[in-house]
Prior knowledge:
10 helices, Rossmann fold, binds zinc ion, globular, alpha/beta, 2 domains
Amino acid sequence: MLRVFALLLLSLSFSLAQLRVVTTYPWIGDIFREVGRDRITLHVIAKPTEDFHFVVPRPTHIAKLRSADLLVINGASLEIGFLPPLLQQSNNPKVQPGRQGFLDLSQFVELIEKPERVSREMGDVHPEGNPHYFLDPHNIPSLASAIVERMCLLDSPNCTYYRSNFEDFQRRWKARLKEWDAGFLQLKGLKVVQYHKTYDYLFRRYGIETVGTLEPLPGIPPTPKHLERLKKEAENKGVKFIVLEAFRKGDRNSQNFANQLGIKVVVLPQDVGIENARDIFSLFDEILRRLSV
Length: 293
Ligand SMILES: [Zn+2]
C-alpha cells in the first residue's frame, strides 16, 4: 500500500515537473505556447518593442536561464550582442551551446545573403547570412517540428501530447498558408524600400522587390549621400512604400524620405506582441493586411 502511494507521489511529481523553457524572441515563445501549452513554463528574453539586434540584457533573464531545461534561439548571430554574457552568468551547463538543452533554429532553414567575406567595412553584417528567416511563413512548420523533437528528447513522458499539439498546429498553419500565398501573390511586383533587410525572406518568396535599404549597410544609420542616391533609384523604379519594422516606428529618416517621394511609410509588425500581431498567425495576417492597402 505504502509502495503504491510512493509510486503515485512519484508519478505526480513527474507530471508536475514542467519543462522550463527560455526563448530569445517572442515568435519562438508563441510556437511553444502552441505545442507545449500548460505543460511547460516559458520565459521570453526580448520584447517586441526592442530592436532584435540590440536586446537589453537584464538580471531576470540570468535567473530564468539558471533554472532552464531548454534554451531556444534564433541563431545566425542575431543574439550575439546580448546572449553570450547572459549564458555565461547563468552558470547552467544544461543550456550551453552543444548541449541537449540548447537549440539553434537557424540550423533548420536555408539562410540567404551569406556574405562571401566578412570585414568591418561591411557594417554589422551577419556572417552566416540574413538571420530574419522566420518572416517567411513557409519556414515555420520545420522550425516547430525541430522544437517538438527537442521537447520529446528532454521530456519523453509528454512527447505524445507535444506531437499531437504540433499536428494540430501544422494543420491550421497549412490552411492559413494557402490564404497567405494567395494574398501575398497579389502583391507580386510591388516595389518597396526597407529600413533594414528584415523582410527579405518574405519578399523573395512572393516576388516583392526591395529596391534598397535606408541603411547603407546593415546596422549603419542612413547617411545623406546614401539617401540621395536611393531616392533617385526609388523614383525611377516607382517604389510604393517605405517598409519599417514596428520597433522603429516614428523614425524620422523614413518619414522624411517618404515625404520627399510622396509615398507612405508602412509599419509592419516584426514579431509577435506588437501592432496587432497577437500570435504568430496574426503576425502574417497583419503584415499582409498592411501591405495590401
Ligand atoms: Zn538584421
